[in-house]
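Please, structure for the following, as tokens.
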Amino acid sequence: MHKAPLYICFFSIFFCPSLKAICQFTSQNSHQPKYVLVIHGGAGNITKNNLSDSTAYKEKLTEALEKGADTLKKGGTSLDAVVIVIKILEDSPLFNAGKGAVFNSEGKNELDAAIMDGKTLKAGAVAGVTTIKNPITAARAVMDKTIHVMLIGAGADKFAKEQGLDIVDPSYFFDQKRWDQYLKNKDKSSIGDTNPIMNKYGTVGAVALDIFGNLAAGTSTGGLSNKKYGRVGDSPIIGAGTYANNKTCAVSCTGTGEYFIKNVVAYDISALMEYKGWTVKKASEYVINKKLKTQGGDGGLIALDNKGNFAIPFNTAGMFRCYASSNGETKMMLFK
């Protein structure tokens, strides 16, 4: 539908009220609302040969994608969609987040999560939590209910309980496959003989653009398998593993967090777009496949700009990723 000529609209103000209404309608609807949702389930040594059964992963990612997209379709915010998606993945033992979190060097689960609102630049994060069933909900509560950005450890667990969030015994996070993985690697350095990201996968994240034009990003993880107790990766650090700004993009990262922290990867994407005028694709590809890779950093990210364009670069064997948009396009990819 084309806008009515300006002189007709001006004429209608005085002589044709009905035509005036039509002009207002066409003006307000000249740009159709658009939403986009992009999800990742971690990057690493994901190949057809070493992933014995990809069906379960596809089904869970599909469930998260459909519920998240439905939220956006019905007018839900990008923040709401991100939380809904990540909660579903946190509740599945398939991914290294929530129920499927890996064990640290002491055989315990310490979880991290973050969320950021591209409209206000408000953000919330928790790190090293052990009793919060869905860390992403605690991150959202930190953002919405406090003046802070990050709470850690026992303090974050206590805060979540005070907010009425779902609290569980640490044993809830036990998963036999993760435990076997811990036992197999417990005598190896978490950042030493082997590169841990190549031995596991599963950090989850989502970026969304809602029909109001607002971006949001969220990430949740159990961190590196056999990590040093108390270690915090990039996922809960705003600007490193998670970032959103309506002026540029929303980003969620996955990989060996130490490299993402040192390179402030999520914010770097935004900065390249804002200050150099790069597209989200150019900025993302450069950071992951050139800047990070030359340092030995492995992983990937999902990035979505304020126009609905997105990028999903990774420099590992594979990355769980999928997306859906208001134009009906939906796609899922696991391998390269």
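Confidence is low (pLDDT under 50) at residues 1-33, 190-200. The first strand starts at residue 36 and ends at 44.
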